[in-house]
Amino acid sequence: MKIILTKDVEKLGKAGDIVKVKDGYARNYLIPRALGVAATAATLKLAEQLKAQENKKAKKAEVQAQSLAKKLKDISVTATMKAGEEDKLFGAVTAQIITDLLAEKGIEINKHDILLDEPIKELGVYDVPIKAGAGVKAEIKVWVVKE
Questions:
Q1: Domain locations in the chain as residue ranges
Q2: Of 94, 137, 138, which is closest to residue 116 (Cα–Cα)?
Q3: CA 97/CA 121 separation, integer angstroms
Q4: CATH 3.40.5.10 at 2-64, yes or no
């Protein structure tokens, strides 16, 4: 059975895609949950409209992500932390701390978009990658200095 997806379905396709699935999967899962509709002449027009809307959204998101990445490119933040011997920090610089430092500069970033492998636990200068969205990544410099 051919189905036009009305929402993104993981491992199947994006909204507006025409996919061939087994009848039972379509009748018992996709259609009742409003994830897809049967492909007919009328619904094919709907699919074209959904594709056009998705393309507009994707282009808009990419432009916003590029703009944010350009803004982040020249940003550096300074985290002042207490440190002991051998420049080891008491605590760590986490994604939340970096989010707060960026918020002070007027840039709102979700802490989950900051791609730290593990919290920073030593003094120094670090390049921290950030997801700007739509597959675009940027880097900021984080200076960790002694209080």
A1: 2-64, 75-146
A2: 94
A3: 13
A4: yes
The residue-averaged pLDDT of 41-67 equals 89
In residues, how long is the chain? 147
Overall CATH class of domain 75-146: alpha beta
Pick from 12-26, 39-53, 60-74, 118-132: least confident: 39-53
Identify the pLDDT of residue 47. Answer: 83
Q: Does residue 116 carry a pLDDT above 90?
A: yes
Mean pLDDT of the 29-33 span: 96
As a whole number of angstroms, the distance between CA 83 and CA 92 comes to 10
User: How remote is the C-alpha of 38 from its chain's centroid?
Assistant: 31
The domains spanning 2-64 and 75-146 adopt the same CATH topology: no
- Nearest 5°: phi and psi at 136? -95, 135
| CA dihedral over 25, 26, 30, 35, signed as positive or negative | positive
| Model pLDDT, residue 85 | 85
Q: Which two tokens stand for residue 115?
A: 């791609």
